[in-house]
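User: I'm curious whether this sequence folds into something compact or stays loose and floppy. Could you predict its structure so I can see for myself?
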Amino acid sequence: MNNTLSALVAGHLLALDWNAAAPDLARAMPDDISSGAMAQADFELQGGVAVVSINGILTPDSAVARYLGWATYHGIESVCSELMADDRVETVVFRVSSAGGLVMGCADAVAAIAGLTAQKRTIARVDPLATSAAYWLASQCSEVSSGAGGVVGSIGVMQRKSSPVAPSQSGDQSGIYLSEHARAKSPDHMTDEGRALIMADLNAAEAEFHADVARGRGVSIEDLRAALSKTDDPRDGGGTFSGGAAVAAGLVDVLETRSEFMARLMAGDPPTRRPSRSRSAAARARVASALNY
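Assistant: Here's the prediction. I'll summarize afterward.
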């Protein structure tokens, strides 16, 4: 039995930077998530700026994720709806610290952030990691800000598969059997036919991922794929970018330190859709506290 958090993602299509997520996935599964659950604030509002955290391994609505204080896709949808209707909110900062997560459920959260961006200024602040599904979400904002050491990218979809090939602990040989017209129910990655079925799912999810990022960043899919490639072959994408390379790839708009970001935000540099009011030093301090800066 898998008693680590990797059980959350087992068998799923993933938009996840596996290496970056490894420390979290290796953590022991909480023994009792029914007690001592951590409260998870949807957002903090200070002086017209709402701060939303996108952190942890992203899932649609996992009780384990809520217990750990991680963001969920359902939670992101909900907070976007609330912020859309709140006239006090001028700017929304999504503070991102996530290696990504499941493909399942991500599209609705992507659409929610895109809808919010159509109405209000939104900024994704990479702090310090926004890869795979987390970047999928961040790409829908009006702009993406990162420190020089922030990491973005890992744009692609994966799935980890295994097959029982040895006797189980009980001494029985395990096997998976499918009805005649249900090979796609649990494709056998040890066969050419099974691998083709797996790749069909991966490529369909990747196409949606690329289309959303391209739309959010205002580029063509072809240009996006070329920018993401580490070579001249667009199939060599899926890597991560940092610093100037992230800007050159079109994944980040502004490289700035935390203090520079805060100064620019509080000065109201210039909002994409709504005019900002000047804010006092006390208001700046409150927003900085919400961002943990």
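Summary: The first helix runs from residue 18 to 25. The chain has ten helices and nine strands.
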